[in-house]
Specification:
The protein has eleven helices and ten strands. The protein is globular, with a radius of gyration of 21 Å. The protein has a single domain, classed as Rossmann fold (3-Layer(aba) Sandwich), CATH 3.40.50. By secondary structure, the chain is α/β, with parallel strands linked by helices.
């Protein structure tokens, strides 16, 4: 037996792999889906985006204002809600952001469940009755027991000035993960990073820095045996294309998205580029499809650009309501708010 944890003898490698086989077998079917009907993998047709497994890095590409952060936050809260429904008690979904305050992100969660506009909350235009509903929901047992945690800046803790770096991210993840001896008793099921360009280099070597960062995020996924979903801003050249869908080599200041990612998705809201009721350029959709028309700002196109060991190069039009952080098709298929929100004491609902 070697003193190095990186060296495995033939016996150690076999024993470790037996344990891994048992782990994979016990977790069959427990990969993390997108929670989007028509995009998730269907074993009967062998089409769709394969569920995300521990140790994998998925990158979500998007231009500013096209729904990248909203898409990721929605995915995180759907995953957390699913774990709660399954009764999983020792796994945590984590959302890390340097883009918004933790309090703002928490209100996205509330907006989706109460169907109260985040825009109206941000502007302070809600009536007293809706503000009361928001406060009661935040303090209720449903929100308190849904395993969605956050890493980021907070208005409440603004006195603490902690820079978010790869090192502080690793330290925060280590703080969440809990062990008793050699047994993990609390683990990170998945972590969402919004977004990689908010990690700032200390020198002018930006391309090298973000290349190293993508490699570092992949290492974190493997080290913590967790699913890593990283948002990546697409470069501005995408806006000049006839069809402004970010592709795998469109990461701003990084060309390593394709190299280190096990899967790559991109999001775009056509209303940023064409007026309502305008016909989209043909590559956006199929010929003669009614979905080639942009109706309003709810239209979103999600493209699966890469998926290790699975299908890729396909896209889907969805209806996404950014003011509610709500994706219509996905919510209806996978999530029933009436079942999961707080119930009156003694209710059998």
């Amino acid at each position: 037996m070697s003193s190095s944890p990186l060296v495995f003898t033939a016996v150690e490698a076999s024993n470790a792999t037996v344990d891994y086989v048992d782990y994979q077998r016990s977790n069959d079917g427990q990969g993390m889906p997108l929670y989007i009907n028509g995009l998730d993998y269907d074993p009967e047709t062998e089409k769709g985006f394969l569920p995300v497994l521990p140790g994998e890095l998925i990158t979500v590409l998007g231009r500013p204002g096209n729904g990248k952060s909203s898409f990721m936050m929605r995915w995180a809260r759907m995953r957390a809600g699913h774990l709660k429904i399954l009764g999983v008690e020792n796994k945590i979904v984590v959302y890390m952001t340097a883009e918004q305050l933790v309090e703002e992100l928490r209100l996205f969660h509330v907006a989706a469940e109460l169907r109260i506009s985040i825009t109206e909350m941000a502007s302070g235009k809600l009536g007293d009755g809706d503000w009361k509903r928001v406060r009661e929901h935040l303090a209720g047992p449903h929100m308190m027991t849904t395993p969605l945690w956050f890493i980021g800046k907070s208005r409440e803790r603004r006195k603490t000035k902690t820079e978010i770096t790869e090192e502080t991210l690793r330290a925060a993840m280590s703080d969440i993960e809990q062990w008793q001896g050699n047994q993990v008793v609390q683990e990170i099921d998945s972590i969402f990073i919004d977004y990689v360009q908010r990690f700032r280099p200390r020198s002018s070597a930006w391309v090298e820095f973000y290349g190293d960062l993508m490699n570092g995020l992949k290492n974190l996924a493997e080290d913590f045996n967790t699913r890593m979903v990283a948002g990546c801003q697409a470069k501005r050249e995408v806006d000049q294309r006839q069809v402004p869908i970010p592709m795998m080599d469109d990461g701003q200041w990084t060309s390593t998205v394709e190299q280190f990612s096990d899967g790559v998705l991109s999001v775009v809201r056509p209303s940023h580029y064409v007026v309502p009721d305008a016909k989209l350029p043909a590559p956006f959709g199929k010929k003669d499809s009614p979905l080639m028309y942009v109706k309003d700002h709810h239209d979103m196109i999600i493209s699966a650009l890469k998926r290790k060991k699975g299908p890729a190069n396909f896209k889907k039009f969805v209806k996404f309501e950014p003011e509610y952080n709500y994706l219509v098709q996905g919510e209806l298929k996978y999530y029933d708010p009436e079942r999961d929100v707080d119930k009156p004491e003694g209710s059998n609902a």
